[in-house]
Write a structure and sequence with these properties.
about 150 residues; four-stranded mixed sheet; about 25% helix; two-stranded antiparallel ribbon; 1 helix; alpha+beta
């Protein structure tokens, strides 16, 4: 009987070790699956500026609304390029800034894949801080039509 008990004890110990190995293997598989979904890279397939044109004033930073496809793309960073640096400059941080009146195209490029791009027309206006107007006549009444001299600042 002692021999039979030893064999049963050995079988029991081996069975426990198999259970532990199975559990560890299962845990490793789960960890690999989790790491795959957490760290997988989802490439940008396309980007789209949501408006056909943007109107801004001189000195404004231009921030177009951009949609990425797929929505859960890993890298949503973009690079901006301007068709006319006299109207829009790209600052040291990489943002487009309106510097003078006019219209030009702003290209938005995926930093992950430079072949993924979109463009938007940007219209830059000068900020008007004040308007001085003087009537040629001293008095103006409601309903009168008069010529004015004016200066825009």
């Amino acid at each position: 009987m002692n021999g039979g008990n030893s064999i049963n004890q050995i079988k029991k110990k081996l069975s426990n070790k198999k259970s532990i190995v199975t559990l560890v293997t299962f845990a490793v598989i789960i960890l690999v699956i989790i790491l795959y979904f957490v760290f997988r890279k989802i490439p940008v397939e396309s980007i789209s500026v949501t408006s056909e044109s943007i109107e801004v004033n001189v000195d404004d930073v231009i921030t177009p609304d951009i949609e990425f496809y797929p929505n859960n793309s890993s890298n949503k960073n973009v690079i901006y390029k301007t068709a006319d640096e006299n109207i829009i400059k790209i600052d040291d941080r990489g943002y487009p800034v309106a510097v003078d009146n006019g219209e030009t195209m702003l290209t938005v490029i995926s930093s992950e894949n430079e072949s993924v791009t979109d463009e938007v027309k940007v219209i830059v206006n000068t900020k008007i801080s004040s308007i001085n107007a003087k009537p040629l006549d001293k008095y103006i009444q409601i309903g009168d039509e008069k010529q004015l001299e004016y200066e825009i600042f």
